[in-house]
Amino acid sequence: MKIEHITLHHISMPLVHPFRTSFGVEEERECIIVEVRGAGLTGWGECVAMDGPWYSAETTTTAWHILTQFLCPMLIGKEITSPADANKYIKRVRGNPMARAGIENAIWDLCAKSEGLPLAQMLGGVRERVPVGVSIGIQPTIDALAKRVAGFVEQGYGRIKCKIEPDWTYEPLARIRADFPDALLMADANSAFTLADADLLRQLDALDLLMIEQPLGYDDIADHARLQRELTTPICLDESIHAIADAQAMIDLQAGRIINMKQGRVGGLSIAKQIHDMAQSAEIQMWCGGMLETGIGRAINIHLATLPNFTLPGDISATERYYHEDITEHFVLNKADSTMSVPTAPGIGVTVQRDRLASVRLRQETFVP
Ligand code: OSB
Ligand code: MG
Questions:
Q1: Rounded to 10 degrees, what is the CA torsion of 90, 92, 94, 98?
Q2: pTM of the model as a whole
Q3: CATH assignment, 121-341
Q4: How many Å apart are CA 120 and CA 19, to the nearest integer?
Q5: What does the pLDDT average to over 164-175?
Q6: CATH number, span 5-116+349-367
Q7: What's the pLDDT score for residue 183?
Q8: Ligand 2 centroid to 181 CA: how many Å?
Q9: Which tens digit of pLDDT belongs to each residue from 176-221?
Q10: Ligand 1 pocket test: which of 19, 23, 135, 302 has the largest number of ligand atoms within 8 Å of its C-beta?
Q11: Active site residues
């Protein structure tokens, strides 16, 4: 099929609740929605770069630049039969994984729709429902955190992740562990610590956490290997895994036992699938991370999380945890088993509401051959 039309939609949606991590506070979620048309069908993707370079180097502005100046011009008018075909045209672009993933997502959706298959099936997924959890930001007080966690447990979330930083490490997690002795509980540091904090992090070993996510530098692998040797709690890498070579280094150096897979962070679904297969062979567990996505990105994450090595609950929550209104239909939690159902219609399986998309749009740009 020929890529006949591409439109980029730069949008911003207010979050229901400010989200505070060790790298900053998000009150609005800016992102770029990618629309690609061919053979009478429309594919959708989401570029998860954030407004500032705090989680990774990319921002919505750098991604807009890479998409408008390079990726869209390289793909418009091209004949493709698969995402692998499309990737041949854009492989000259180095780095910028989130920009690349945004357009690659849309091509996966388009190809799945042209085959009449749900994205999960195109990817090789094996589940109809995926286990999910909730990620909770740093709160003003421990009581406020305890209240927030209790609310999410009440809603049915079976896995709770709390953000940590050097002043917010042992005490908040110890309180949640005391309140919920059997909860699947974990911590995410977003690179807030150094090896000098090993003693502080070792205190967490007493709390029976599922894992500690990304304690050290966003680009580090070697120090994580040193730290893992000092902790009994498994280390999970998020920010450090940008590419296949990073996953290989993590495996070779034993720099952790778990990967948080975010397809945007590694450059799209094709690379995510390759890292998935590598991790599976190396017996590294995996789960699907989140970037406060709209319904488009959330649908993509849910389809990805159906692959066999996604054995732990993902950072995939109900729409109402993020947004009052979305640009697709809302996702709800299956309270009985803390799962989310995988959409069954072809492609991403959700419908984009164009009036909603237009109402949150800051700018748009269209490419035709
Ligand atoms: O580190 O996993 C992270 C959100 C934005 C950027 C980084 C992270 C997160 C989350 C939220 O933890 C996950 C979600 O529910 O989307
Ligand atoms: Mg993380």
A1: 0
A2: 0.97
A3: 3.20.20.120
A4: 29
A5: 98
A6: 3.30.390.10
A7: 95
A8: 23
A9: 999 999 999 999 999 999 999 999 999 999 999 999 999 999 999 9
A10: 135
A11: 163, 262
